[in-house]
Amino acid sequence: MTNPTTGIGAAVERIEDDRLLRGGGRYLDDLELPGLVHAAFVRSEHAHARVLGVDATAARQLSGVAAVFTTDDFPQASRGKRMPQTAPIPALTAAVSTMHALATDEVCFVGEPVAIVVAASRAIAEDAAALVAVSYEVLPAVTDPRRALAADAPRVRAAAPDNRAGRFAAKFGDIEAAFAGAARVIDLEVESHRGGGHSMEGRGAIAAVEAYSGKVTLWTSTQLPHTVRRHLAAHLGLEEPQVRVVAPDVGGGFGPKGIFYAEELALVLAARALGRPVKWVEDRREHFLASVQQRDQAWTLQVAVDPDGAVRGVRARGTNDCGAYLLYGLLLPLTTVVQFPGPYRWGALELELDCVFTNLTPTSPVRGAGRPYANFVIERAMDAVARTLGLDRAAVRARNMIPDDAYPYETGMRTPAGVPIKYDSGSSRACLDRLLEDAGWAGFGERQRAARESGRYIGLGLACYVEDGGIPPFEGATVRVLPSGTVLVRSGAASQGQGHATIFAQIVCEVLGVPLAQVMTEAADTDAIPRGVGTLGSRIAVTAGSSVAKAAEAVRDKAIAFAAAHVGVAAEGLEIVEGAVVVRGAPARRMKLAEIAAFLNGSAGVPIRPGFEPGLEATAFFPVPAPTYSNGSVAVEVEVDAATGAVRVAECWFVHDCGRMLNPLLVEGQLVGGIVHGLGNALLERMVFDREGQPLSTNYGEYLLPGATDVPRFHLRHIETASTRNPLGVKGVGESGTIPTPAAVISAVEDALSVHGAVFDRHPLSPEDVLAATGCLQDPGKAVRPDERRREASTALHPETAR
Amino acid sequence: MKPAPFVYHAPRDRSSAVSLLGSLPNAKVLAGGQSLVPMLNMRYAAPDHVIDLNRVAGLAGVRIDEHAVEIGAMTRQVDLLESSELARRLPLVAAALRHVGHVQTRSRGTIGGSLCHLDPAAELPLVALVSDATLTAAGPRGERSIPAAEWARGFMAPALAPDEILVSIRFDLRGASGYGFHEFARRHGDFAIVAAAVLIELDGERVARARAALGGVGPTALRLGALEAALRGQQASRVGEVIGPALAALEPVADAYYGARYRRHLARVLAERAMRDAIGRAREAPR
Amino acid sequence: MSDAVRIDLTVNGRAMGGAAEPRTHLADFLRQELRLTGTHLGCEHGVCGACTVIVDGRPVRACLLLAVQAAGCEVTTVEGLAALDGPLGDLQAAFRRRHALQCGFCTPGMLMTLAALAAAQPDADEAEVRAALSGNLCRCTGYAPIIAAALDVLEARRASSAT
To answer: N or C: less crowded end of chain A, CB within 10 Å?
Structure first.
């Protein structure tokens, strides 16, 4: 029954591609509606200020302007009615953590929306926005997360008692005994910086209100249609069926589109007030200012070890920069905490993570979420152990690693709800061993020495990870056979390029034998399926994939039962082949699924066969009991130009296990894309703010994304250890590439410059950081932090002389 | 990110362009648009009038004679790169052009636009400076020649009167120099952090004449007079000794991304690499 | 739009025209006035390349060209790479085979840059392909499959022109 070229496991080309390749994508800004008008936002110019008044008189008078709305125009979104906290948990202790749809008395980050201008075109809306006069009283801003909890630190909000957003603490084992009996205790300070999502398509939405019913439709470039719908309906005081949220084609998500945003709410309120559909398309500058991003986590650790490198215990204290608001709760630092201790068995752990507000852009998960932060801490610690004890870095990891026969494995950590974290299955050791072979780990020292002799610095870095994916609770699917024989799959799963329609079609092909071209998918529309969660946390293959499989199997079973009754043959004597129920051994005796569907769709006057419900369809919401756990190892080879500090990433080996692969071509796409994002985090991407909280990195000349000349050669290898937590045996992979790559790159640069005794425990690494560590700069000392440099000369664009 | 409104003018000849520029308030000249249009889109510039030079006759083209290469200001960077004759006669310019932006930038960008925008790290102003090029401006009072050394008045401020346009750049071909060009940028096509351009003429194994300049270390490209003086008369094999002392007094700018110390270090590294290349090429140059 | 001007040009081989203010860039003119929405906007400041189209034989950023400047020009967009009901062009088919697109947003720009490269430098090697692509950003694929697809097509075209 399995079609090896198009069923589960086949590296089949995507069914989504033809339309996209022809320029037939329908992204948010491609959508037009009759009477559509265009919005632009007036945004705060200050990191922290009181809003004394907003004068839109001149703006409203501009020809082509339909309206200018401020918070006072939307009483139900104004004072006292902030955006909902979408993820409240006990660890989130701050009384205020969200913003208003439009700022009321106070703004808390540069870019916070203050007013919405609606006009005949985006250009005119921007003309009018420039005429809106906002008077501010500038207030002190807190911009350094490490000083945010000091008693004399400025407050992120004037009325806030302090800048604490929350706190996490976790422990297992006997930490005192671990340290008391240690041969060595190693001290480390580790800093990670991540940046923005930077999908090539920014955010965007169109809000329309149906005049007679009051039904609200929001087309929005989102990862979470049902979550947005739930909160929008609640905020507006409407029932969920009165609000429809649809995601069109989405040009990348990566986390920042997994939020219910103030702009979306403001857009709906404006559409209701105007009685016309309103479109807003985020430009790149807005993406830098007001789409959520990630920034700094700083950790101090002590690692207690035995002489052979076994880690007896780790004490770790961290600080997480939350930004001005928590648009998705503390999901980011929470995700960091539950990653510990990754693929390793540590004797004991005591960990605290302070989550603090700053008057900077709000933070929330960006591909990898909090996992890369944790991985960086863990992997730098492992390298430090190796360096301190004079041991091989791979040997230290192997010494501490969970053995492959120890699954299911309880890590000692618990979820915030108190449930012990248990890895379902894994192959960390097998991946590591295979990686070391593939990357030529054993022979690299010799290559490195030979390179040194000809004046070249090459290095090989290593990192291992575990990725929790397939996050609960569920993502549902309906599978229905249409009268034509086409199989319709409806899912809550929103896609931003992952190829969900293809893998769902492969699953349907596997179960019902129909060709891929005969499967159509509708997704990401709250009218099509009643409940859903969203696309984040590498979860859709596990959740929606399993639901598609279950629903398809139910359809198969029903079709066979119906055919059995109809033809008078026992069900065991029937099977599904190529979209038809056939008698085993007598393929000429067959009923096409379309025929069965026709019977079950009914016709006037003809009773449905007794014992059968109408319709050849099934809906399943496969309930995921706990996350799945993928694992892997990555090695990166770099060459460092010791004269300029440039780092060239030459090769990348990645050996991983994401359980059963539904489509290896798509899995490799997720891996390579994720790895390159990780390279960006390691070497290029940095959000720079000045002391007053002004973002300085607001264009692609200053904020650097990896390009085609920056990527290495990739050598990927897959191991498949099925998950025990879903019928398909799949695990998440969407974030795997991003998680361990920064640690491996930094490990490689450190290895390349080990002759200079270079130690790097932070990223991104700039060429200046690299040189500072080699002592090549006149005055080595500490690497200079960006916020200590004055911005004197702009190499960016200057108004007077451009041509 | 849409521009503020402006009136658009597309003159067909030079004198109309000049007279528009002289008579319209708050006007900007549009050449390749690769620097101006982003600024219009971001509203860092909001001129009332945009004077498009792309339809003006006679501003583009390359004329080569025995002694000089004259390049019209509106000549596209891609056309310069594709000219094998230019690569042969002005290899320093060709080398620099390979670092200017990306293929899309060079399809529209012009040599004149880059020279007038005067980004402190830009390649073309740097090579014009080190080559002692001569720039020709045209205004209502006619044409005038401006030596490259006098072209940059300050940070992104060329020596053009408000009613003048740049019409051409002339590179002298006399003297057989070996060239060297090195820049360091984070990614392919990015603005340079620091760039170095060097021209060396040898007399046997001695440096007869040296010209050297840096981009990215100050508000404008910088001629390295001290280095040039130190190189003159030096044995080619010993030039490495003079670079450090000659650049010791360099005080580069710092910004939010790279410090002065790092720029000074890069300047030394790149100047040395460019110098060695220039000497190597000078040795091979036909007499 | 009191100061809108009439702009006539050739797009994908057909005479087309519309009206736009001088401040409207070519990308917005193609998308809104001519309803060719395949060309996308990713940054509007000349770095990401999503808006790349071919104008008079050369790849340009449509967000940095005023629509009025394109009057009388020959423009090719992604919609011009294949007939509406015809087979995919060789670059497009190679992208599909190599999984060189995920969200598809940067893809039209990538295709146009590569179409121009293949015409101008049919012998381009991997380093030249990477350099040509350096003005086009992608956040999904990590570039490797795009480079592979480009090399597939260059090699196939060379092989078929040799026979």
So the answer is: N
